[in-house]
Amino acid sequence: MDEHMIEQVGGQIYTFGSYRLGVNQKGADIDTLCVAPRHIDRNEFFTTFYEKLKKLSEVKELRAVPDAYVPVIKMTFDGIELDMLFARLALQAITKEQDLCELSLLKNLDEKSVRSLNGCRVTDEIIKLVPQQESFRLALRAIKLWAKKKGIYSNVLGFLGGVSWAMLVARVCQLYPNAAAATIVNKFFLVYDQWKWPQPVLLKHPDSDEAAKQGLSFPEWDPRVNHKDRFHLMPIITPAYPQQNSTFNVTNSTRNIMTMEFKRGLEVTNAIFAGKDDWESLFKPSDFFTRYKHYIVVIAKAATADHQLEWNGLVESKIRFLVANLESIDHIILAHVSTESFCSKSEDDEQTKWFIGLEFGRTDNVNINLTDQIRHFTSDVYHKAVNIQLYKDDMVLDVLHVRKKELKNYLPQDVYNRVGLKKKSFVKRNSLSMSPNNDTGGNSPDVNGHNETNKNSSDSSVPPKRARLSDSQSSDNSHIVDFKNSGSGRSANDSPITVRINNHNSFFRAKKNGSVVTESEYLPQQTLTIL
């Protein structure tokens, strides 16, 4: 192209999400969309443009995710976190006045461009559909803060993301068009405490007829036509064509947790309006780390910061599947994942921890084996890492069971003190390799795999040792820990529950003779328990 044409073709960066709605908070990321004319394709965005970004001194923590459902480049630009999507329009030039809400723009676009455009289109539609924008913004700020304090603000972990919370508040604003922000907050909890899920939340009727007139036929959310849409638990439907469910990640547990918080929020705001409480009570932090007696800890490790950044993103995106797998187990009535993760760094590696609280129902004497669920989760993560060519030899994924009194060994000290857990001294959990000849300090397993000195004392203050097999070792022994009073409301007379997690994560080898290994090759078949 000559210089004159280059000046004419243009190209724009649009914002959407919380920043575009005017409810962004200090330190929050900004969602952006790069819109290019027809002669620039997506491959150039993720190659030549990505390489240009690498050379900028302002850009840190740069990573591209071209294979995501909505492809994105993530970065920190001059200290500000940015997520940048890409869309190519079938136009010769992109002007500063270009309106992205026009349906005709979607003609001849691929589905990834349409999904990317929908971020801006949905945000603009929400703004148009709200009766009083100032009341909406103030109420939305309050609800977003409340959701973050209660640990239910995370689309990737199966709760709701920013756009979903915005649509819920916008619907309440439509129902109460003249209400002040404080009233909107109270009515928010009233409406969604009584909402009959999976009845969908809609801000307006779909534009399907108008889209059909223009020859558009992109897939839309419609349970009458699409079989998979019938299984969505908490549908909140975007107002821009093609309408989609923004909450397809929600699981049974995350929905139950959110509906419970809606009920609590209604009680608190009713008390506030009655003059019996104040607004600070609504924003008290979650009691996640004191609510449950048993937790699953997911630990992602890598040797370098760059590898850990990539590994974290993949593992976090799969945790909701682990939650769904845990929900399928009899006697587990709730699997609650915390939206707060914890990063740490040592001389050997960098690691991130996520916690899942488990609540058990009232049962008789029962043995709960989590091995299959953990194995499916780790298998899925490793396979995905290999398939998208992300896996490196230093990437490790561990999944452990811990009791509440052992959390001190896994939480940062300031967090442990903040959540108000009772302080006790613990013996640090050891990592060892168990083999038939391994010396375990005089506490060798018996023929059933139980530690002889502890098999009759299930509530010993010393945490059980975690065992890991190396490639050259094998064992058919199991090391099982019994513990009592599992789940909320269990009495001291309830029967004990035995939780078992067999060794699920032998040292992984990404390739074997130049080809990707199969699950049977890298997942051990022995039944060594790592509790």
TrEMBL record:
Annotated Poly(A) polymerase central domain residues: 135-284
EC number per UniProt: 2.7.7.19
Residue span(s) of domain Poly(A) polymerase RNA-binding: 287-346
GO MF annotations, alphabetized: ATP binding; metal ion binding; poly(A) RNA polymerase activity; RNA binding
Polar residues bias spans: 428-461, 485-498
Residues holding ATP: F16, G17, S18, D29, I30, D31, D83, K144, Y153, G162, V163
Catalytic activity: RNA(n) + ATP = RNA(n)-3'-adenine ribonucleotide + diphosphate
Subcellular location(s) per record: Nucleus
Keyword Metal-binding carried by entry: yes
GO BP terms, alphabetized: mRNA processing; RNA 3'-end processing
Region (Disordered): 427-498
Binding site for Mg(2+) 2: D29, D31, D83
Keywords: ATP-binding, Magnesium, Metal-binding, mRNA processing, Nucleotide-binding, Nucleus, Transferase
GO CC field: nucleus
Cofactor: Mg(2+); Mn(2+)
Annotated Mg(2+) 1 binding sites: D29, D31
Domain Poly(A) polymerase nucleotidyltransferase: 1-130
Cofactor note text: Binds 2 magnesium ions. Also active with manganese.
Domain of life: Eukaryota
Family according to the record: Belongs to the poly(A) polymerase family.
Described function: Polymerase that creates the 3'-poly(A) tail of mRNA's.
Protein name: Poly(A) polymerase
